[in-house]
What does this fold into?
Amino acid sequence: MIRLSYASTAIKEFSPENLLALLKTCRTNNGVKNITGILLYSHDTFFQVLEGDEATVESTFESIKKDKRHKDVTLIEKLPITERAFPYWSMGFEKLGSKELSEMEGLNNFFENDFTPAGFAAHKHIIGPLLAHLRSKLVKQVTVESHEELPMQHEDPFIQLLHRTIRLGVKFLALLMVMVILFGIIDVVYVIFEKITQPPFMLLTINDMLETFGAFLAVLIAIEIFLNITLYIRSDVIPVKLVVATALMAISRKVIVFDYKHLPAEYVSASALVLVALGITYWLVQKKE
Ligand SMILES: Cc1cc2nc3c(=O)[nH]c(=O)nc-3n(C[C@H](O)[C@H](O)[C@H](O)COP(=O)(O)O)c2cc1C
It folds into this structure.
């Protein structure tokens, strides 16, 4: 087996559609030929790694060289390998933006000045770190994509049956939650109706308004919980942010209807502390995204 890498310049900028079409060809052809690798596109420059049987990689590279969509096709490296760096990708793809390029450790200067076929040829030492970076990025994507809380497919049929049962249970909970939301809406209407039909008629006092807000927020919390439930049956999502948001809303709801004259100071302080902790958590989760 060999690993061959080259860089080239696009004749004209590749639109997302053109890139997608190119990738489709690569993946179909390479899948048949058992070629794996990665294609990088940035600043009108392609950098591609092809791995596989020597003769197959060579002949594919020959047809790539003849492709009229790019020029200055420059061979960067060709070496024998015993193991593939991109075993799962018939052609992994990365369209790197300037921000990401400048953040790559040890590679930022290269990308600023030399992201061209000639630059790649002159700085072969960056190939190693670059491949390591791309590989870890692709591996991360695969692990995120394959994260599934309750997979429908499982090698053990009994576990699979259990997962299906839990999924059904979650769907039932979601249905119940919709009913709770509907009842909550009816409650909001009822609270408003009750307040305006009591003296003073057609007027809401501050206390009435606070109680009405409480009823509104209860419905919003129910909707958040519904979203939490449904997210559970989706793959790839751990709804940390939503859970924190729901908790924030629930505690805010309490704060809005606090009766400060009768509540002990410790209770109010503890609630404030929880609110601050949740706020910081939400901010951190948001920042990470
Ligand atoms: C930057 C670039 C990378 C390419 N990479 C591959 C590749 O990995 N595999 C492949 O079969 N074709 C690749 N191609 C396309 C080939 O040049 C050629 O169009 C294709 O192999 C023809 O396939 P077809 O006969 O199925 O149309 C690439 C083209 C460009 C411009």
In short: The chain has a mean pLDDT of 84. Residues 157-288 form one domain.
